[in-house]
TrEMBL record:
Amino acids binding Zn(2+): 83, 88, 165, 170
Domain of life: Eukaryota
SMART domains: Mob1_phocein (SM01388)
GO molecular function: kinase activity
UniProt key word Zinc: yes
Protein name: Putative mob kinase activator 3b
Length: 218
């Protein structure tokens, strides 16, 4: 299925932060619309992630990073009331994986945190990056920083951890509200995007590798 109605579906559910929008009339806005239109026509997700001819790769990355942030934010929002310090005392993905948080400021050393705290810090951190116009320029007069691709890698790697936690610990909730097709489609789109541009290491992708092999076949 395509992503038709993805935002409509999730906006009926609880969300915990406003979604970032693109400014109308900018290149990024038209690329965002281009990406949305491709999705709505229901074509092959493996194809739609490819850089359109003549487009700038950094713009393409910026649009996708912001879109994925918004989508994953909505997805986590639907499980967040079931994700607390009692249900999820660690940011785990099953018994084999646990993520530790470090941000170089408040948490200088990798620190175990309850999942909701970890996700809150993670989403705040991403929001700060994408709202920083030095890092994600809104105007074409401002160049992308040299570190832009590595920043996108880091953001996407961290976003992937939210997928890991939601899939492994909260899929019953996703299922009970009938959102599994939406979440799977979002995951496939994300996965094909990061694979197309080799943005997340296979080691990081490992916690969902088994599931990925089942849902990312086409
Ligand atoms: Zn949880």
């Amino acid at each position: 299925m395509a992503l038709n109605g993805f935002f409509d579906f999730f906006q009926r559910e609880k969300t915990f932060r406003p979604k970032k929008r693109f400014t109308q009339g900018t290149i990024r806005y038209s690329l965002h619309k281009h990406a949305q239109a491709s999705l709505q026509s229901g074509i092959n997700l493996r194809e739609v992630v490819k850089l359109p001819p003549g487009e700038n790769k950094n713009d393409w990355f910026a649009v996708h990073v912001v879109d994925f942030f918004n989508r994953i934010n909505l997805i986590y929002g639907t499980v967040s009331e079931y994700c607390n310090e009692t249900t999820c005392p660690t940011m785990s993905g099953g018994s084999r994986y646990e993520y530790l948080w470090a941000d170089g400021h408040l948490y200088k050393k990798p620190t175990p945190l309850a999942a909701p705290k970890y996700v809150e810090l993670l989403m705040d951190w991403i929001e700060n990056q994408i709202n920083n116009e030095q890092l994600f320029p809104v105007s074409t007069d401002v160049p992308f920083p040299k570190t832009f691709v590595s920043l996108c890698r880091k953001i996407l790697t961290r976003l992937f951890r939210v997928f890991v936690h939601v899939y492994i610990h909260h899929f019953d909730r996703i299922f009970s509200i009938g959102a599994e097709a939406h979440v799977n489609t979002c995951y496939k789109h994300f996965y094909y995007f990061v694979q197309e541009f080799d943005l997340i290491s296979s080691k990081e992708l490992e916690p969902l590798a088994e599931m990925t092999s089942h849902i990312c076949k086409d």
